[in-house]
Each structure stands twice: as C-alpha cells, then as structure tokens.
Amino acid sequence: MNTGQDPFELTRGLLPKGAVRRHGFLDVLGESASSPVPTVAQKAMNSTVVATVYERLWRPASFYLASGVTTRAEQHRAAAALRLGAAHRLLDVACGPGNFTAPLARHLPAGGLAVGFDISEPMLARAVLDNGGPRICYVRGDARALPFDDETFDAVCCFGALYLMPEPFRIAHQMVRVLAPGGRIAILTSYSGQAAPIRRALTAAAGVIGLTMFDRHSFVDLFSSAGLVNIEQQTQRALQFVTAAKPG
C-alpha cells in the first residue's frame, strides 16, 4: 500500500530488477523488445501523431460511434465495476495515453497506486505529459508476459485494446494471474453479436486493419474457466464490457 512514497519506487518494487526510468516511465523492455509484424492498427497505436490526438479526438469519437457510450460514462462505469474505493493497487493494461489510468486513480483510497502499462513509447510519453499524478506510475512492457508476481493487484483492467493485441487470450490469462483474491477485473473489447449481415461487414472491415472481433462467449468462458465469479457482460453495438471477481 502507498504510504506517501514515490510511486516510481513503489512500482519499481513490484518489477524485476533492471527496470529503467526514462522519459518519465519505467521500462522493462529497453531497445531489445521484439514483437510480431505489426498490423495497420498496431502501427497507428505506436504513432506519435495518434498518441497526440487519441485522448481528445480519436478515442471519444470512435468509441461513441461503436457503443453509444461517452468516455465519461465509461470511466464512471469502470470505477464502479472495479470497486476502486476498496482497492489499493490498480493495473491498467494497454493504458495508451493514460486516458483511463488517471481518472480511475482518483477513485482509489488514500495511499492507492495506479500502474498504467503499455508497449508503445509514444503513448506512454503522452501519458506522462497529460495524465501523470502523485499516485500514478507508467510502465513499458509486453502484456503477454506481465512482469508482476501473482496476485499483485486489487483491480486489473484493459479498455479498448485486446482486439488490437497479439495473443489476446494469453494476455487475459496474465491479467487474471496478477489479480489478487477478492479483486475485480474489467475489460472493454470488440463484440460480434450483431445480425449476420452486420456481423460479416464488421468482421471483414476489422480484418483489413488487423482487429479481432470477439463473440459473446469468448471472455465470459475464459473468466469462468479461470475460476472467476460474478461474471457480468454488457453489450453495446460493436463493443462488450465484461467484469468478474476472483474469489477471496
């Protein structure tokens, strides 16, 4: 639990030795990071231009069209679902420019710590500039192998990114692994439960730019098979919001 200490030092204590602080965030990858050939969408998320406009223009517009839910409403829903008032450590996977990390951090109790985690240097640089705070630390790493011990965080989330990422189900299992007993998990991702003509059109368009469309059962079944309970799912247009808890 944070007792007024530097969030960088608190977060460094959760990471393997060798995490380097640069550009305002902690980096566990360095220059040696390797990943599959990026899709069009992944290239966009690593662009300094997209990082600059993402929070104020790209995401609010695109996600409202996809779900009919405003960013502010999303943030309130996320904070309530994660029960942040009782959480001390929050992990925001694929945090981008921190557009959810910082608002969610404000819901943590005194002494809470929010860790925003992403692989994109431009996004993290923007997060440090726009969404820093006294209880926030950003970390660069690969979500397919989260560099944290089991059961480290009271709340874990990933909003609007799993459909972009290689091995999304592996990443979801990693999120469950680092969730503490009694903790809450929440994801916002794509949804392919529309009528057949619309579903085929969405899936085809998503495939062109490298997005994965998930059906109604993908993450509900994953969370259930991982032993999570109180699983709830909301679907809106092309997005689904799924929450669950790890038994205490």
UniProtKB/TrEMBL annotation:
Keywords: Methyltransferase, Transferase. GO terms for biological process: methylation. Signal peptide: none annotated. It comes from Mycobacterium shinjukuense. One of its GO terms (molecular function) is S-adenosylmethionine-dependent methyltransferase activity. It holds the Pfam family Methyltransf_11. This is Similarity with UbiE/COQ5 methyltransferase. InterPro entries: Methyltransf_11, SAM-dependent_MTases_sf. It comes from the Bacteria.
